[in-house]
Amino acid sequence: MNNEMQIAYYFIPNSSFSIELRIYRKNEKYPIYKNEDYFILMAENGEFNLTEKALNETIADWSAHIGRFEALGDGNDD
To answer: For 74, phi and psi rounded to 5 degrees?
Structure first.
């Protein structure tokens, strides 16, 4: 990853799961990086590259059942 990318959010799963062979572990904090015109959602063994629209849809879908998202600077990050 280059120096231009910054963490925009964290994803914290409610339970361990895998999706498209990417693994997420319960209560781990996975960064979501902002890179020029897309976002990178990290996993244990890979990543998803998402447009802003796809990220917003993922946040809406996953927040309901799979986990929570923390925006950087909301007081919940390390």
So the answer is: -90, 5
The 10s digit of each residue's pLDDT in 28-50 is 999 999 999 999 999 999 999 99
Q: Which domain holds residue 39?
A: 6-71
Residue 1 resides in a domain: no
DSSP annotation string for 13-37: ESS-EEETTEEE-TT--EEEEEETT
**Which tens digit of pLDDT belongs to each residue from 10-19?**
999 999 999 9
Rounded to an integer, what distance in angstroms lies between the CA atom of residue 58 and that of residue 60? 5
Q: Where are the alpha helices (DSSP H) in the chain?
A: 52-65
Give a yes or no: residue 54 inside a domain. yes
Residue 12, SS3 per DSSP: strand
Query: How far is Cα 23 from Cα 1, in angstroms, rounded to an integer?
Result: 20
Counting the structural domains of the chain, the total is 1
Structure tokens at 54: 């796809």
